[in-house]
Amino acid sequence: MSEAKNEEQQTAEFIKTLSEAPTDLMMFSGSLQKLYKADDKFLPENDAKKTYLDCRENIRKQARKYSKFVLPMTEQLFFKISKIMDNYADLEFDEWVKNSAEFQKELSETKKMCSILKEVHNEISQNLGAEKTVIDEAGIHQEYENSRTRLLAQVNDAYKKSNSLAFWEKLIGVFDIFDFVARKAADCKMVYLTTVLQLALEYFTGYLATMHTFITSCHTNVSKMVDSGNDLERASERELQSIHFKKMKARAGEIRHLCNGFVNTASQKLRNNLSNLPGHDDDEAFLNDWKKTIQNKYGLTQTQINTTR
């Protein structure tokens, strides 16, 4: 497979990822809305009820971390990608080459953020399962796949018709998976709901991996332009990067549109869903502790972890 062909496929897969990525986060946040509507008042007063409520509190804390820090960082990632696309959409090739060192730095920072978000999503997913009991999950896995497939079909159809992410406002709430969970006995319901949350984050982590591959490819292309030394090498690299630039310029508008749609539409719906979770008096303490942990682990600045843009 030629390098140009591979780049075209990576770009097409990246665009598909951007259009579908909100799906699983919608399922994640929509599932959390059901968290405090479960019929726990009908549980018997025994160890099973304590396990159930402990599990629910664990989920609530992971969701609070996501709402407070992870979603804003995810918005930041989409915003950064949109700004990177400005470099292709709004500039001519000579100006792009002239500023390639600056773009190399932007891509390096964006690639790092994508890697961090992959790890953080994995951590949240693993923490959700920390108190999960062992049951036969084949049914819930299949139901999740079925619900997700039906939703993605609606997403793709609606996007083709409207070329807008505003359709997320209409699609939220159609998840058949909730009906499946609702039919489970009260003492099993939390386990099934936890599995839905984990599956949603696992899928989104897969999307982040695709995004990382695409950003890495762009970074590699820009770095070659920056690093080319003598005039002959620079002339050869310039010709290759001219092809890269033209291909990206042709798709940059669509990529930018999808990223802006996530930041301005889909993430706002996610934020509204997550805001329905109750807060507790000790939330600030454990959130500050986790904030310090991920700041130290990933070398994040106050700005990176506190702002969405």
Q: What order do the helices and strands come in, and which of them pair?
A:
Layout: H1 3-20, H2 22-33, H3 47-89, H4 93-98, H5 100-128, H6 138-162, H7 168-171, H8 176-182, H9 186-227, H10 231-274, H11 283-298, H12 302-306
Structure overview:
The chain is mostly helical and 309 residues long. It has one domain: Up-down Bundle (Hemolysin E, Chain: A), CATH 1.20.1170. The protein has twelve helices and no strands. The chain has helices at residues 3-20, 22-33, 47-89, 93-98, 100-128, 138-162, 168-171, 176-182, 186-227, 231-274, 283-298, 302-306. The longest helix is centred in the last third of the chain and has 44 residues, at 231-274. Mean pLDDT is 80; it is low at 130-136.
Please give the number of β-strands: 0
Query: Which residues sit in consecutive blocks of at least 5 with pLDDT less than 50?
Result: 130-136
Query: So how many helices?
Result: 12
Tell me the structural class.
mainly alpha
How far the N terminus sits from the C terminus, by CA atoms, comes to 38 Å
Fraction in beta strands:
under 5%
Overall number of domains: 1
Which fold name corresponds to the CATH topology?
Hemolysin E, Chain: A
Give the class-level CATH name: Mainly Alpha
CATH architecture: Up-down Bundle
Overall residue-averaged pLDDT value: 80
From the alpha carbons, calculate the radius of gyration and give it in angstroms.
Answer: 22 Å
State the share of residues found in helices, binned by percent. Answer: over 70%
Identify the overall geometry: elongated
What is the helix/strand order?
HHHHHHHHHHHH
Largest sheet: none
